[in-house]
Amino acid sequence: MADETRTSRKTGRPPVGAAVLQEDVTAAIKDAVFDELARTGYGRLSIEAVAKRAGVGKTAVYRRWPDKQAMVVAVLSEVAIAAIDVPDTRSLRSDVRAYLVNAGAALEHPLASKIIPDLLAETARNSDLGIALMTSVRDPRREKAALLLRRAVERGELPAGHDLELNLDFLAGPLYWRLTVLRSPRDDSYFDRLTDKIVAAMTEAGS
User: Fold this and answer.
1) Is the predicted pLDDT of residue 201 greater than 80, yes or no?
2) Is the CB of residue 151 less than 8 Å from the CB of residue 178?
3) DSSP letter for each residue of 17-66
4) What pLDDT digit, counting tens, does each position of 9-19 carry?
5) What radius of gyration, in Å, describes the C-alpha atoms of the chain?
6) In CATH, which of 1.20.120.680, 1.10.10.60, 1.10.520.10, 3.30.70.2190 is domain 1-64?
7) Distance CA 137, CA 7 (A)
8) Average pLDDT across the chain, whole number
């Protein structure tokens, strides 16, 4: 199993209690978290299984996170927030379509398609996990997506008084419902048709 070194900048000797966290070990652990979540689900996930899959000792995991929940939330939030892409195409319609294409690719990823439904079911039973995921994943993702709508306001494509929360629901909800809940196939024109409906709903008077 991989080991991690301890060093002192001044003496070159291992300082007591100070671990140098190797990036390759961290990456291996993160990959193992996703693999184990997809394989067993959150409820049966264990630090031991993650460490074994990553090829490290349990201590390497505990150096990074104090427990299973902290580990899962940290690893998921890093990837989930990075996956939200809000390129500035200078057009509300083009921005929305680019957002949907990117989000669709993330939701259809083989690991995500197994992990996301399981975590949603788990949060219904585990309120602490639910609160942690809302704070670390849901809220930052919505705030990042809100940039798309704020830019549309600045360009005059949306009124300043538009319903931001409702329009964020329009932006994410239909795609998530189709790909994650219904798991329905989509054709090549789906993103264009969905984009047109979402933009129409957002720009409707009073929305």
Assistant:
1) yes
2) no
3) T-----HHHHHHHHHHHHHHHHHH-TTT--HHHHHHHHTB-HHHHHTT-S
4) 444 444 444 35
5) 21
6) 1.10.10.60
7) 34
8) 89
